[in-house]
Amino acid sequence: MSCVGKSQECSTRTACVSGYDDSDNDPFYDPDLDPDIPSDVEDIISQPRDSFLDLAKSDLKKFFEQESESVFYQRQLQVMFEAKYFHWITVRALSELVQEGVLVTEILPLPGSGTASGTITFYRSTAYRYWKRDAEEIVKLVSRYSESSFTYALGAHGETMFDAALPTGGFMPTGWKVRARGTTEWTETKHDLDRVFERDGVAYGAEVKNTLGYIEKEELEIKVKMCKHLGLRPLFIVRMAPKSYVNFVEEAGGFTLIFKYQLYPFGQKAFADEVRARLRLPTDSPTRIEDGTVKRLLDWHLKKLRTKGS
Q1: Same structural domain for residues 130 and 180?
Q2: Nearest to 156 by CA among 2, 268, 276
């Protein structure tokens, strides 16, 4: 269910939040471990096990039994299963299934990815012998949306979309690429905040992340610290975030607005449709952000005002 498509409004905040809504079932994994960094994968595997890992393994095993003649790459599977499992849970479940001989993993180069590793990790059923042509087609498609100019366009477009959307809820942009407010300046790092939005005398330090992966935990913590230093309320506008991130921002007095679908730039709808159809990833190119998405932020904002005034 999209939070951006005109006919697919996300009616509730919880409908767009990743699994583990029960705080008693929060996994033990350190969110600072990046599943896309090979050295971190080893640390993820060494973390204490929790009950969700076996559930993830069971779901993945059934999935690959049904998709016995298909190949999938790591980020793709993380996103496909994110409604039930954190990204790092999926990675560890895949790793254990490989160790048990249920799945086979293949690492191929990713031309023009602009990443340090420049590789893409695939998983397939042991019965799928003619996987390479399938994988090569996926590599070509992933290379297209991983190209640096396109990833830059994704980031800029996400900011532009919410620049237009938030004022419809009364949140007006008052700062861009902010490192200082009044006489107070952030000098601890070279980071800045994407935007400052204000409504009812409340100023929000906003970060917009139009990416398939989670925002890095270190960056999340720095931006929250920046907001506190500059007297701003943290606002993270992200495609998806784990509950541990949402809780961290909430404890700092802020809000996480999740929009679920990665927003492709105007004129790229055919590409977004191709990625969604071929890779089953949540990509879209809507003309505007749905009113219901902004309403979730507005409802939270007004509730906070009432609580403060009571």
Answers
A1: no
A2: 268
